[in-house]
Amino acid sequence: MIRRRTMMSNSVPLAKDRASRALPSLMGPVALAATLAFATAPERTLAETRQSTEPSQIYEDVVYRSADGVDLHLNVYLAPRSSEQPAPVVVYFHGGGWARGQRPESWGGFRTFLSAGFSVVTVQYRLSGQAPAPAAVQDARCAIHWIGQQAEEYAFDPERIVAYGTSAGGHLALMAGYLSDDDGVDVEECRGAPEIAAVLDFYGPTELTRIKRGNAGRHPSVVRWVGDYPGAEAMDAAMSPARYVGGDTPPTFVVHGDQDEVVPLSQSSLLVKQLQQAGVAVELFTVPGGGHGKFDAATKSEIFARALRFVRSRGIIE
């Protein structure tokens, strides 16, 4: 059952048969500091600040597809500002080596995007223990297809979808944005997904045939997801975003720590080089001394500021 939570009285009207309930306070120290910073601006009241950083409505556990007898869910956090125009959308894919992890339980980590006028969609996908590659990629593409199909109901702008992910989720964001119907990966019911306007790839693997763990050959996470069988390297290649770079590839913003021992910086460097050669707008932000995510607060602030400038420069937001 879809659970809806209403945040503001001026929210976009949606299906009336969905239950609503009040949202508990999620204000942590970082969010509080951001709110206080906004509140110092004389033209904003505290109430206005909260309304500009909180979703207008929340839809939890929405089923976007069923596969292998399993319902796959997503959460929807609608843009906070009231507008007659459809909102741009950030669709987020979590990390975890395609084997673990889950979509975030709240919208707190997406304040930057909400305050910029985005709606946010967070996606559950099949993990390697449920189904091997290409299942997770197909699910990611189906989530994009669902956004297109539900654009009118949720006031999404299907021409302004930004795919965003961290680690393995960065890989899925890239695949969601770089694939087309002609690549033969999409399942039939999810063909015709909207084109992605931009990708935010945070330290995701980009060429699975080249990501190694010491001298052990194929990376264990890749083996766990793809499988270990004769010819598996062909699937490694087919699941590599770098293989799909072309002139129509969406603009891509990449973040990577230069001391990342899980996904080496060379993975992002390779992708950026190919995007540049193809004439695709790309920006790489290398974090000095940074590992596999877990950056400090100041670095995170700079990353998200740069990400917003990048999507703004592409005309996705004003």
What does this structure look like?
This protein is an alpha/beta fold. It has a single domain, classed as 3-Layer(aba) Sandwich (Rossmann fold). The protein has ten helices and nine strands. The chain has helices at residues 29-39, 46-53, 111-115, 135-149, 151-154, 168-178, 220-226, 232-238, 265-277, 297-313; strands at residues 3-6, 57-67, 70-77, 87-93, 119-123, 156-166, 198-202, 252-257, 282-287. The chain has a nine-stranded mixed β-sheet with strand order 1-2-3-5-4-6-7-8-9, with helices on both faces. α1 packs across α2 (46-53) and α4 (135-149) packs across α6 (168-178). The longest helix has 17 residues, at 297-313. The radius of gyration is 19 Å and the shape is globular. The relative contact order is 0.11.
Please describe the topology of this protein.
Blueprint: E1 3-6, H1 29-39, H2 46-53, E2 57-67, E3 70-77, E4 87-93, H3 111-115, E5 119-123, H4 135-149, H5 151-154, E6 156-166, H6 168-178, E7 198-202, H7 220-226, H8 232-238, E8 252-257, H9 265-277, E9 282-287, H10 297-313
Parallel strand pairs: 4-5, 4-6, 6-7, 7-8, 8-9
Antiparallel strand pairs: 1-2, 2-3, 3-5
Helix pairs in contact: 1-2, 4-6
What does this entry show, briefly?
Helix content is 31%, strand content 20%. It has 318 residues and is an alpha/beta fold.
